[in-house]
Amino acid sequence: MPILFVIYGLIVLFIFNSLTHSLCIKTKMSNEKQSKVFRTINILITILLITSYVDVINHM
Description:
Elements lengths: L1 H26 L3 H29 L1
């Protein structure tokens, strides 16, 4: 189960990074702002994935 969740998490991070990249291109953000946006989104998605994993483990 943990291996499947890690694979799922990597896929989710890849999709959100692709969407963030598209957003940065459309809005023509500067490189400094892009790095802050990517960092913020990656941290928030990682927190979401960790809490989801803990919730799944607690319900088993």
